[in-house]
Write a structure and sequence with these properties.
Blueprint: E1 20-25, E2 28-30, H1 32-45, H2 50-57, E3 65-67, H3 68-71, E4 77-82, H4 83-88, H5 93-110, H6 112-121, H7 129-134, H8 136-145, H9 150-159, E5 161-166, E6 173-174, E7 180-181, E8 199-201, H10 207-214
Antiparallel strand pairs: 1-4, 2-3, 5-8, 6-7
Helix pairs in contact: 1-2, 8-9
Length: 215
């Protein structure tokens, strides 16, 4: 781990030196198909050690339990907890993760003005950071009224739209246990879940074309 990757404690926001705890969090879920294949094979084999043998024989045994962070590193969150906070008492991981995501969103917002300038240079309509945050209440109200998720409305306001294209065809869509947008931000929370049917934003990049170029 590089020194540049260090940051204050995610609980107290204090220093983490000289030693701290690194808590890695991602979403994990059972794959019914793979788990049943292993259990079915073990039942057929029977006897002591049947499960170990079944895991060596059954297809998909390695993914009987799917850990999202193993499949997509972007889906893995890492918390830094100083030793004092670790020993002091209860730690609410859900709250700390939401706070971490909020800080990341703030960091992205700080660079939104520069991003907007680059997009305008390429002919893509985008709002500046100040314009975007001034319109945030309006965006949220319009999204609720149209039954559209605030997160895609946010992307449309920031980056414009790509008419006739959907998120399902975009290279920035992360495919794992759940769909995520790499540009919006990724977490283990449903707050960053993405929908294939949404109209693509102005940063759309054709996935099939990109894969063809890569060869």
């Amino acid at each position: 781990m590089k020194l540049s990757q260090a940051r204050p404690c995610d609980k107290c926001r204090g220093k983490i030196a000289p030693q701290f705890y690194r808590v890695r969090v991602d979403l994990a879920f059972f794959s019914p198909r793979n788990a049943n294949a292993v259990l079915g094979t073990a039942q057929i084999l029977g006897g002591i050690g049947a499960l170990a043998v079944a895991e060596a024989m059954a297809p998909g045994a390695e993914d009987a339990i799917v850990c999202a962070g193993d499949k997509e590193p972007e889906l893995l969150d890492t918390l830094f907890i100083c030793q004092e906070c670790y020993l002091a008492g209860e730690i609410d991981l859900a709250v700390l993760l939401e706070q971490l995501h909020a800080r990341r969103e703030g960091a992205r917002a700080d660079g939104a003005a520069d991003c907007g300038a680059r997009l305008r240079a390429y002919g893509v309509v985008a709002l500046t950071s100040d314009e975007l945050y001034a319109l945030k209440p309006q965006l949220e109200a319009e999204a609720r009224a149209s039954k559209k998720a605030v997160r895609i409305a946010w992307m449309h306001a920031r980056h414009g739209r790509t008419e006739g294209r959907r998120c399902k065809d975009c290279e920035h869509l992360v495919r794992g246990g759940y769909f995520k947008c790499r540009l919006y931000g990724i977490s283990a929370s449903v707050a960053t879940d993405w929908r294939l049917k949404w109209e693509a934003c102005g940063l759309f990049k054709d996935r099939e074309r990109a894969e063809a170029i890569k060869g």
